[in-house]
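Dear colleagues,

As part of the handover before I leave the project, I'm documenting each prediction I ran so the next person doesn't have to rerun anything. This entry is a single chain, and its sequence is reproduced below.
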Amino acid sequence: MGENTKISWCDATFNPWIGCTKVSDGCTNCYAEAQNSFRKWNGGVWGKGTPRKRTSVANWRKPVQWNAVAAEAGASMLRRPRVFCSSLADVFDSEVDPAWRADLFALIKATPRLDWQLLTKRPHNIANMLPADWGDGWSNVWLGTTVEDQKAADLRVPVLLEIPARIRFLSCEPLIGPVVLRGAYEGCGDCDPCIAGQRCSMGAHLKALHPEGIHWVICGGESGSKARPMELEWARALKAQCEAGGAAFFFKQTGSVITGSAIDHGYDPARWPEDLRVQQFPEARP
């Protein structure tokens, strides 16, 4: 199966449209904007008020083809194919034509053999943009949000936790600051263990990492000539939180700039510190 992709945590990428608007510090060196500026997919324009470009009919047929391949393989396929949507846009962008989003969810429903990974920097829009029959979450949809630093965690993770989903995940990439996902307000004791004295990014009543909360955390440094540095200890801290909370941890890349270590950067796990050679996936949930 597959659309070629260098994204190691999916099997294929699908972009129903191209275009977006920057919303936070994680967007500063946006890969999609840079690619669009070079390739002129969307006329080279980007940002608020610029048109989003719907991709071709042929592109929209690809997931149907992948689903057919998976159906034909049946039990011989060791696991379900994972499709990341959208790498060059945001599914829950309020500047996108709602009819396009309805078409996307119709496509997702028509391809039940694929696991769709929907990642957004706009989790506050999700609840109002889901299909009417979403219920407790469609069985083939994973919902995720980007968490590049503590500010993003504080704003986005509590919102994502309120949305019913079979799998919820975080993309801590580019990781540009330390992130604490576990803990509680001092004296609350709601989370186990409680990080006394630290402000809980989840709120005192919520546990960030547990079987009904965040199931998967992706972590990676920033790439490119303008990449901001990532401390390896930030990644190690996220890994430890996942281990303590029962969430899967996936270390994607060290990024182009690393502080606190002289190791080589990049996508090659053989060149990473041994303790960060971890690429786990969440278990399939009923």
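The first helix runs from residue 31 to 39. The chain has one domain: 12-16+64-276.

All the best with the project,
I.
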